[in-house]
Amino acid sequence: ALAQLFEAQKLDTIGHLTGGVAHDFNNLLMAVLGSLNLLKKRLPADERSERLVTNAIQAAERGTALTQRLLAFARRQELKPQAVDFLRLFENVEDLLAKAVGPRIEIHKSIPADLAPLLVDSNQLELALLNLFVNARDALESGGAVTVAAAAAEEALPASLAGGNYIRISVSDDGEGMDEATVSRAAEPFFTTKGVGKGTGLGLSMVHGLAAQSGGSIQISSARGKGTTVSLWLPVAETFVKVQPAVEPPATEPLK
Ligand code: ADP
């Protein structure tokens, strides 16, 4: 299941990247195809020129078919926000996260059972947790602890958030931490200090993207030699918990 999650993360990243690239590429190929078709009409009627242009048109058509497939794939990656019970979600993936960090790292949690439900894509939130736990593991070479905490965030909201109710979820480790320059770049796509083949530099940018797309926010605080806390503010799914008053069904005449 862990391999599956990693695979899902890879697909997710590819999905986001291909979405943008495929769209631009498709437009370019459409322009190429249009010009080639015009050129074909204006060409002198010699067999060799015609064959060359026809080959080019066929290649461009194969290209547009491919970009259409990529776009269809990327569209499947859209977020599906639902009301999520964070304690349940965390308990469902806890074993998996423990396997990801290994036996030398303790996991602590502080999640109230009566926490309001979040409005977020649950699969993506699981992936975000996995990314944060993998980062904590890498920062804890000689063991240590990772702490997950969740609480209603009535005060101390980041300036970027509008009014409303949010839950703050944080993942902290007492690992090696980051210097200021690293903190300021940590969420950039492809920024990694882990070396070729080890880090992709996409973990925190995925977490950042999820927070932003969910209408929330992210904050990374870290100190070299002390540890790191990544906090996510996610909106409360308020409208989902309100129950409409039952409407009396209209009285019906018994059938005769
Ligand atoms: P990756 O883990 O593939 O490098 P990320 O985007 O998840 O990509 O992280 C970017 C960089 O931020 C890491 O290479 C590392 O330098 C730093 N970083 C992230 N999380 C932590 C952490 N918990 N402790 C120390 N450094 C971290």
UniProtKB/TrEMBL annotation:
It comes from the Bacteria. Residues 20-238 form the Histidine kinase domain. Signal peptide: none annotated. This is histidine kinase. It comes from Rhizobium beringeri. The chain holds residues 177 to 432 of 558 of the full protein.
